[in-house]
């Protein structure tokens, strides 16, 4: 989505030290990366691994598409990375609480999103992520994602 400006007022120190950054929105329902199921044919020694959730593939594809659009042909961000993600989940009509303290688990949402970021070429490898700030809120389903490449993480932490 063009023209998107992330809310980062709470963390200006990351942007002051940033070498490169990208921010974008992903539309769609965030899906957790769950367990995989293994199947084998009778008489075969090969095992096929299959995602246990049908929702993961469309979410990863949405992240990949939005990430590719945001990168606009640039090389993947590499080096020490800081990632900020706000997952927006639909609020059920009968829910009274302000925060989504139920399924899906935040860590599993992150796993599926990192796979999409890597596939999109936004990040070279999710092993490069040194700082992660994630939030789960109610809103229009999707996610706000910011990836920042900082050359000196110690300078940012000081």
From TrEMBL:
Keyword annotations from UniProtKB, A to Z: Endonuclease, Hydrolase, Nuclease
GO BP terms in the entry: DNA recombination; DNA repair
Pfam family, one: RusA
InterPro entries: Endonuclease_RusA-like, RusA-like_sf
Keyword field contains Hydrolase: yes
One GO MF term attached to the UniProt entry: magnesium ion binding
Name of the protein in question: Holliday junction resolvase RusA-like endonuclease
Species of the source: Homoserinimonas aerilata
């Amino acid at each position: 989505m063009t023209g998107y400006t992330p809310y980062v007022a709470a963390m200006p120190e990351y942007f002051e030290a940033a070498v490169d950054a990208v921010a974008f929105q992903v539309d769609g329902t965030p899906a957790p990366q769950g367990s995989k199921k293994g199947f084998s044919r009778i008489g075969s020694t090969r095992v096929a691994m299959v995602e246990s959730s049908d929702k993961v593939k469309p979410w990863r594809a949405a992240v990949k598409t939005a990430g590719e659009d945001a990168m606009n042909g640039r090389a993947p961000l590499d080096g020490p990375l800081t990632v900020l993600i706000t997952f927006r989940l639909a609020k059920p009509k009968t829910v009274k609480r302000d925060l989504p303290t139920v399924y899906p688990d935040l860590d599993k949402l992150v796993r599926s999103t990192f796979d999409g970021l890597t596939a999109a070429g936004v990040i070279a490898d999710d092993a490069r992520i040194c700082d992660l700030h994630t939030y789960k809120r109610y809103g229009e389903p999707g996610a706000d994602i910011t990836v920042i490449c900082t050359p000196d993480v110690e300078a940012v932490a000081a």
